[in-house]
């Protein structure tokens, strides 16, 4: 049967509650496994699909400007364009319909690229074909898993690649660039960003650990509460099983000889056992219910149930002992010994402390009176069970002892002393037993209370001189450790989440930031050739203003031309200080200037050969210069332009009176464009997604650290208790073994002082209690030594070891005191009658 098995009042089996945190813990554990598997499969799938196995077909239909034809495009491609999926890019000279452009209804084509550069302006809205741009068949973009580029992004990316390269002076290469861009944006690979997968796996794993620690803490708290309940139930069950024997003992005492306290204790025992039996089932159900297990009402009821169970046990033991006395059964002496033992322990400490006190704090005669009074009390405890006056004799001896203690308290309290520490309370059974015997249990007339207070008073004057005084007791943690309230916990968690946004934002910004550094350089590698009919430009002055370096020598021709002859300049609105250029005139001017350098062109495609770029500079009649961009021999790929006239569609121009600086800016832009060309920004994870992922990771990591530290502190505390408890158990065992081996010597020492005077009676009677306490301590030591490791980690084990250690110290102190006085007595008697004195070593003395 499970050690947590229990039944309610109807006989139904109760099942221990489990933390609800186990559900998200299991789910997060599964999620961690699934995410790790998805990340691994993504890499495997990416590796399998990374090979470009399909060729992109380009079909040119119609007549086009910019030297675009099927022949020139095929020549400009300079080899097959490979992609991860087969498709055809169709270049058309007509306008597109709205259905084609916006809805992807292109039944006869995959991608349809119109070379028209502006929408058809028409008042007749019934004309369907009036849009420029790129149309992508809908099924090519539907059903994508990651969707790094949505449908709109895809068509704009392809069309922008075409237009950006037109702005670089390209013709057929613009179509090739559009096909290359289509191959990239139509590829839908799984997310293989390692930062994303590692962060996601770490987040899931951390969340799993958090929920597991919460569930583990819940289970530990519940098991601690369950152990307390079971311990109290055992005490109740023991008393219930002994009720018949208690009743027989109670009725064995003649009714006329039953003191009022004895009768009240019996009635209290019956009522208390009945009340506990009634509340046991409801309390068990509350402990086994998840809703009420950790409620304040359950904690209060459990505490009350434990206190009542302890009281019931003490009351039962007291009634059993008192009943044997009142009924004159065998065991009267044992009962009174139990009553005398606490007083004997307190008095033993007091007498040892007084004998070790310096100066004349107390007279030897007063010490002997106290020892004699203690002897009378212990002698009364050994009374014959047939003696009807045993209790009265014991009470009389206690009154005499109390009177002497009160007298000495008045004398000793005159000495300077600090605050008197509260003495340890008497054992729980002591007061119950005294009440059941019909004795006065008030503090003023109690032997233990007066002896313990006087001992504490003497200790405050002379200090802790006994071994038992030096034993420190660690503060025990209680189950009611600090736990923030619901609103406070919500505020703390919210604050933690907000604080976590700071490092998450910084980290996410660094991870998704532009990987290219700011331009810093001296123009190294730039080789400028100036084609300026006016001869006003100097390459030295231009290079002086450059901020970038070229990794390899790069040649550029600066072609200076008349702006009014090449550009259609407009002032819009009229009277404005700024001018713009008609967009198409900007584009035509680039291609016109390119044709002016036939030696740099490919004879078929009319594209610039690799080696030199052309930077057109237009001089105006107002004495300003316009440098709109450059004509590049390379195709612009990726999401960054090479620095060409990317804004040609708007006709934007910048007029400057400092052509050197303006041209240097174009050269710098080209240097940066070369560096960025072909770079594909990782779109698998956005800043926002990474930011919240890292925020939650930070949040759960901090919570996990806090819970882990709290758990480790608890575990370390348990292991520390285990280590300290085991060490203390070994020390106590050695002390008890020494006492057991020297038991014969102890008996001889007690006999040595017996009969020498009236003071020996206390040692003779105390020897009986000493041997009984030693036997009990040895049994406790054997039981603790056999305790398994898992049980030693509990606080109960440490408390029992501390009590055993204290008992061993007290027994050692008593044994050493008796041995010392026996040695002194025997040494003194050897000099009687004129005999020469000699050193005498009694057994047990070293």
Automatic annotation (TrEMBL):
Question: Where are its TM segments located?
Answer: 21-46, 195-218, 489-512, 690-713
Alphabetically list the UniProt keywords: Membrane, Transmembrane, Transmembrane helix
Q: What is this protein called?
A: DUF5129 domain-containing protein
Which lineage?
Bacteria, Bacillati, Actinomycetota, Actinomycetes, Micrococcales
């Amino acid at each position: 049967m499970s050690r947590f098995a229990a039944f309610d009042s109807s006989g139904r089996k109760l099942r221990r509650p489990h933390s609800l945190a186990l559900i998200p813990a299991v789910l997060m554990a599964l999620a961690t496994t699934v995410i790790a598997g998805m990340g691994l499969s993504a890499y495997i799938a990416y590796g399998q699909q990374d090979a470009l196995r399909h060729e992109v077909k380009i079909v040119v239909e119609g007549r086009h400007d910019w030297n675009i034809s099927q022949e020139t495009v095929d020549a400009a491609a300079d080899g097959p364009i490979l992609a991860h999926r087969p498709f055809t890019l169709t270049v058309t000279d007509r306008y597109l319909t709205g259905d084609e452009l916006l809805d992807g209804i292109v039944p006869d084509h995959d991608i349809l690229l119109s070379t028209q550069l502006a929408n058809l302006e028409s008042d007749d809205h019934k004309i369907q074909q009036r849009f420029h741009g790129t149309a992508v068949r809908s099924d090519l973009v539907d059903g994508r898993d990651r969707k790094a580029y949505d449908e709109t992004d895809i068509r704009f990316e392809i069309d922008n690649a075409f237009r950006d390269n037109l702005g670089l002076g390209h013709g057929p290469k613009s179509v090739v660039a559009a096909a290359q861009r289509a191959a990239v944006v139509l590829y839908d690979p799984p997310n293989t960003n390692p930062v994303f997968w590692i962060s996601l796996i770490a987040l899931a794993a951390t969340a799993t650990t958090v929920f597991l620690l919460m569930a583990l803490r819940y289970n530990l708290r519940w098991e601690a509460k369950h152990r307390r309940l079971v311990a109290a139930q055992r005490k109740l069950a023991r008393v219930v099983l002994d009720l018949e024997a208690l009743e027989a003992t109670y009725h064995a005492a003649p009714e006329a000889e039953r003191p009022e306290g004895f009768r009240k204790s019996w009635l209290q025992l019956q009522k208390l056992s009945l009340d506990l039996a009634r509340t046991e089932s409801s309390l068990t159900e509350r402990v086994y219910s998840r809703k009420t297990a950790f409620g304040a009402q359950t904690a209060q009821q459990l505490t009350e149930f434990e206190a009542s169970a302890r009281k019931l046990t003490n009351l039962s033991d007291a009634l059993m002992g008192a009943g044997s006395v009142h009924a004159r059964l065998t065991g009267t002496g044992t009962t009174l010994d139990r009553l005398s033992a606490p007083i004997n322990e307190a008095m033993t400490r007091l007498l040892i402390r007084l004998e070790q006190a310096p100066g004349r704090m107390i007279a030897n005669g007063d010490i002997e009176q106290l020892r004699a009074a203690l002897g009378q009390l212990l002698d009364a405890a050994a009374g014959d069970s047939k003696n009807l006056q045993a209790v009265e004799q014991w009470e009389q001896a206690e009154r005499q002892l109390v009177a002497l203690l009160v007298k000495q308290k008045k004398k000793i309290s005159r000495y300077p002393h600090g605050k008197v520490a509260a003495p340890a309370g008497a054992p729980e059974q002591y007061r119950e037993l005294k009440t059941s015997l019909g004795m006065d249990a008030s503090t003023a007339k109690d032997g233990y209370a007066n002896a313990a207070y006087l001992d504490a008073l003497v200790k405050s004057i002379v200090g802790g001189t006994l071994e038992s005084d030096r034993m420190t007791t660690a503060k025990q943690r209680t189950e009611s450790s600090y736990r923030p309230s619901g609103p406070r916990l919500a505020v703390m968690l919210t604050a933690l989440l907000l604080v976590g946004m700071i490092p998450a934002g910084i980290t996410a910004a660094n991870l998704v930031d532009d990987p290219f550094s700011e331009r810093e350089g001296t123009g190294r590698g730039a080789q400028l050739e100036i084609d300026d009919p006016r001869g006003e430009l100097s390459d030295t002055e231009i290079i002086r203003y450059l901020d970038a370096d070229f990794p390899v020598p790069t040649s550029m021709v600066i072609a200076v031309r008349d702006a009014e002859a090449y550009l259609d300049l407009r002032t819009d609105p009229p009277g404005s200080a700024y001018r713009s250029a008609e967009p198409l005139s900007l584009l035509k001017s680039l291609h016109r200037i390119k044709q002016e350098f036939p030696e740099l062109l490919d004879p078929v495609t009319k594209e610039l050969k690799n080696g030199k770029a052309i930077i057109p500079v237009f001089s105006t009649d107002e004495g300003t210069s316009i440098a709109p961009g450059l004509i590049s021999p390379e195709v612009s790929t990726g999401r960054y332009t090479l620095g060409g006239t990317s804004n040609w569609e708007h006709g934007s121009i910048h007029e400057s009176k400092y052509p050197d600086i303006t041209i240097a800016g174009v050269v710098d832009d080209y240097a940066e464009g070369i560096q960025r060309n072909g770079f594909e920004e990782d779109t698998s994870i956005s800043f926002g997604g990474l930011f919240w992922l890292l925020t939650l990771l930070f949040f759960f990591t901090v919570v996990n650290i806090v819970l882990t530290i709290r758990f480790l502190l608890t575990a370390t505390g348990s292991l520390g208790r285990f280590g300290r408890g085991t060490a203390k158990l070994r020390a106590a065992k050695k002390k008890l073994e020494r006492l057991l081996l020297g038991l014969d010597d102890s008996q001889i020492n007690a006999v040595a002082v017996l009969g020498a005077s009236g003071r020996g009676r206390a040692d003779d009677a105390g020897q009986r209690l000493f041997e009984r306490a030693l036997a009990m301590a040895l049994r406790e030591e054997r039981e603790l030594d056999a305790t398994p490791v898992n049980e030693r980690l509990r606080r109960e084990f440490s408390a029992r070891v501390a009590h055993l250690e204290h008992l061993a110290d007290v027994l050692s102190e008593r044994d050493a005191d008796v041995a010392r006085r026996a040695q002194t007595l025997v040494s003194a008697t050897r000099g009687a009658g004129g005999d020469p004195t000699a050193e005498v070593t009694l057994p047990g003395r070293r």
